Task: structure prediction
Amino acid sequence: MCDQVGWGNNVLAPSPRTIDSMLTELDRVLNEKAAVKDGGQELTYGELHRYSLRMAHALKEKGTRPGDVILLDLSVGIPLLVSFLAVTRMGAIALHVHRLLKQDEITWLMHLSKPCLAIGGDFHLTNLPTFSWEDLNLSSLPKEVLSPPMESDTAMLRITSGTTGRPKVIQVSQRQLCRRIANPGVHYRSDDVYGCPSPYAFPCYHIVTALGSGGKVVFRHAATQWQIERMIEEDQISCFWGVPSMYEQVAMAGSPAVEFSSLRSAISSGAYLSEKTARAVMKRWKTPLYQFYGQSELGFLTESGPDTPTGSVGKSVYGVQIRIGDSEGKHTSDNMRGRVQVQTETGFPPYLSGEQLPIDEEGWWTTGDLGYLDQNGNLFLTGRESELIHVGGFKVDPLEVADIIREFDGVKDAYVFSRPHPLRGEMVAAAVETDGLLTPGEIRKLCHRKLPRHKCPRKVFMISKLPRNPLGKINRLELLNLLNLRD
Result:
């Protein structure tokens, strides 16, 4: 098991168990401190408390009751944040729909979750009663006291990445949502200014952590390398959040280095970030870049730090234990490769469909990832069990092959996957996002220099842009459709 990092929050103690108690306490201790900025609008912690409370009462007046699902169809910014906080503090359940979701996916979500109303209507058409954020903030703050939710109540529905099939919907409790507040670590401080660029999948875990640590969150559209670096400079960002696709753009800008007077750290989450990209960003920005490893079902499981060994995703966060199991689920010793298994003090959220997570009799969940722990509790990932490619009698890790391909000049990103083979069962294939100068033959030739023959891709597809989901992960099904392949 990993040693867990202890309590690290200097603003809230003890850790709040609900969004309502978090906002009430922040209003008490940080009433006039700036909490969030979005364009020309800025709210203090006191205003964030009052706006979300007023909106919670307005939703109650519309007939919303605790346990009802409310669809949030808003872009990332203050309206979405206040709406999310209002819904969760009144005991209703927030379901945010990202702008990149397709209409058939929205229809499927609505059928499964049965929301009673929608807020926003920025991107998707629904048959629900829909109210604007402005309409729900016109009334004055009533004197009536809301009944606070319980820590075990569902606060939000979270959609899994769905990179290999139909996504699932997870029920996240108030306590599970607040868990990250307990260990902000070196990344989160009350004097930090957090850069939250859009377009971006709603980073609820990030924002709850930032607000719980007393920092200030800045929302701003920043999709390109130039926009990102302008945001850091103009808004004096000290901690920048981003998904790998954003950092890949920064990495391609190369030298010279950029001197930021405010930037203290950068954080990547949502998908795999190659070491090549991470090194290039740190060289350009002259600042450490941290990565989070997690699962949609459980949020963040580990975080890296300044002393994290190269190639590791770090140690477990507060409230999480990690171990490695063998093929039969038995605990292995340090440095032994196997299946990554986790336990959390907050338990495991159920799927909305009723499907249960595969938890063993000791309370361990096998994540599907493969890896090992060193003697200091650092986790190293070596692949996904379901994505191993079986070439004859050999097992090939697609992450290893993709990392090799990404090292070549002109390669922006790569996705390695299996294809059927009449004699070997499976063969290695790769989709390579390039600047247009490389050919499939050159990729195969370069791979043969660094990889054993059975690991080299026999099929290489050159593509101008790999399809990604809202979290920045490569969508396998969309990619296969683009390549006219069947899974």
User: Anything to note?
Assistant: The first strand starts at residue 34 and ends at 38. The chain has twelve helices and 24 strands.
